[in-house]
Amino acid sequence: MSEKEKHQAPTEAIPLTEMELKDNMLTAPEIKSIPAAYRQLLLFADEMGDATSEDITSLRTILGTAAKEGQFRRDKFGNSTLLRSMQTAMELCRRVSPDRNMVVSILLYPICLTGHHSPEEVAARWGEDIARMVRGLLKVSSLYERGTAVESENFRRLLMTFADDIRVIIIMILDRLVLMKIINHHPNDRLVRDVAYEANYLYASLAHRLGLYAIKSELEDMSLKYTDRPTYTSIAKQLNERKNARDAYIASFIGPIKEKLEALGLKFDIKGRTKSIFSIWNKMRKQKNDIDHIYDLFAIRIIIDTPPEKEKSDCWMAYSVVTDMYQPNPSRMKDWISIPKSNGYESLHITVAGPEGKWVEVQIRTRRMDLVAEKGLAAHWRYKGIKSESNLDAWMNNVRDILETANSGPMELMRNFKMDIYDKEVFVFTPKGDLYRLPAGATLLDFAFNIHSKLGCSCVGGRVNGKNEKITYKLKSGDTVEVLTSSSQQPKADWLNFVTTSKARTKIRQTIKEQQGRTADLGREMLERRFKNRKIDLDEATLSRLIKKLGFKNSTDFFRDIAGEKLDVNSLAEKYLNFENGNKECESHSAPVSAEEFTLRTTPENADSNTPGSTDVLVIGNNIKGISYKFARCCNPIYGDDVFGFISSEGVIKIHRTDCPNAHNIRERYPYRMITTRWSGKIGEQFAVTLRVVGRDDIGIVTNITSIINKEKNVSLRNISIDSHDGLFQGHLIIGISDTRMLNSLIRKIQTVKGVKEVQRNN
Fold this sequence. Notes:
Elements: H1 3-8, H2 18-21, H3 28-45, H4 53-68, H5 81-96, H6 100-113, H7 119-126, H8 128-145, H9 152-164, H10 166-182, H11 189-209, H12 213-227, H13 229-241, H14 243-263, E1 267-274, H15 277-287, E2 298-305, H16 311-325, E3 327-328, E4 334-335, E5 348-353, E6 359-366, H17 367-382, H18 389-405, H19 410-418, E7 425-429, E8 435-439, H20 444-451, H21 453-457, E9 459-464, E10 467-469, E11 481-485, H22 502-533, H23 540-549, H24 555-563, H25 569-589, E12 617-620, E13 629-631, E14 643-647, E15 653-657, H26 663-669, E16 674-679, E17 687-696, H27 699-711, E18 716-725, E19 728-737, H28 740-751, E20 756-761
Parallel strand pairs: 2-6, 12-16, 13-15
Antiparallel strand pairs: 1-2, 3-5, 4-5, 5-6, 7-8, 9-10, 9-11, 14-15, 14-16, 17-19, 17-20, 18-19
Helix pairs in contact: 3-5, 4-6, 5-6, 5-10, 6-8, 7-8, 8-9, 9-10, 9-18, 10-11, 10-12, 11-12, 12-13, 13-15, 14-16, 18-22, 22-24
């Protein structure tokens, strides 16, 4: 087969027919849409240089057989997975770039999901590359079934799946775009809001980082539409009402520029583009203005046809034409041609005062630059003579570092993941003239870590423009930086308070953790040596109980204190022997009994005279033996709460808060089964507490709240669910916390967040 026949053959293949799709649980509109989508994919197949007629025939056979056998599922929104996968494949071809392996993996994924095909069968017929993408998509699907958005470990696994193959990221972004388009007016408003929130928070961010700006804007617009439809509709209506006046203004602005560029012999296109609704809403919110006072509602784009060797000179020529006609605003000048963005974006941005004194943003770029700006890094790869894999690989490696060392919850993980995405950039030089790009606000220490992790770990300061500066110095564009090091320097925990790049934060945490591990090993060695000298046999189980008895959360902290001489090893040996002997006596004289049979210790001085029953007191906490008790789920008591015990019919004592909703009923009906209860002392474990937070509907509030929680020592965010209605959001946060003192302090801090109206502890 000739090359010409090879590329023409796919469009001659017979598409899936309506007859094949009948009686397969598909709706009438779907039966009509699927053949049309298939025909459209055949047209795109001509653009795939590596697609063959055998590929099209095989796909048609597999999809047709699966359709006849009813193998295609419906997603949780009720959409056909066959049609959704075809729409995703079309979006890939239309919005990014036709790619044979990616298209095939998208189409095979839904039938692999049902087990009709296995990844091994895909590998045998289509190759390991496609099979790997299918496995990635299957893994993402399984994680979503487990509630990825709220479970920390699943969230991390989701991002790790993305980090394994960047093409899986692109496919999932396009799949979310398709899903967002087809769920408009879906009856399950809560489900739609969840998808919209995630699309904005995760997938729009990923699209931005990959240079898929058009997709990013569309995801953000639809997210605003589904989460705040009145605001979206209002802005859209106002833009539509001003369309005629806006078009007339753009025409008057463009006219003189067009004439001058044509006189210079440049080949170009020039057009006006209204900013996205989400972008306008964001500006209105930040500037606290209405739409009439947002000056840059649209931008003018000049796209020049020119060969690669003349790109820069022709762009600057167009720049001089525009700035000669209209007064530029120097502070709004952005030169991404001399130094492109890390995702490959190249363009000149200027803001000028047009007719009537209105500010207008003008973007100047070449046809190649526009392709990259519209279709992102994928288009960058495919454009002749242009390579950008190095930037992409560096970013993906950074993502992997973050995920592999992260120990925090999903919000902190996402904060690190997104840290470098939207920030503006600063550009600094080494003494040799090498240029480095960092986010605005980066410090000298961030710069050291950006060059090399070892350099960052040993950094003690630097010389900036010939002047000595501390590691906390904030870099400015144009700075020349020389890093100074010391062999005795080691990363410190307080470094995390001022570094801004995710690479620096990740490496600092990792190194501190390694240091703590080495210190703990030294402490264990000291303890074992002393025990051996005194001929004491060390029992790990007994030592673990002693560590908890001493109030340590884990053995690492215990051994670190030994190495730091905060604990005396001789004294510990005595405590160990006493503790071991005490346990043996307890075990020989007592056996576990039920709550009904247990005789409580009499402590009249601690008895609650207001509680019916005897003066016996139940002491709860760690190392309490011979009794079975549980914390009641109806009120979830934590250390520090006033509590009482209630002997249940199963013989287990249930611990309730004294203000438990069920307390009144228990006192009235079962006073003889109540037990005065007190805590034994600092327990040293975390209790689950649910907080209900009500505030203004603003994504930034959630970020601020989770940031406060993540900064608190010995507090962890275990789960979060958000619902919003009529401009207010209601969030339920499940946190792990040690006692009521810490809980009350945390509540007070959350109440200080701007926009928060109410914070309550739920029963």
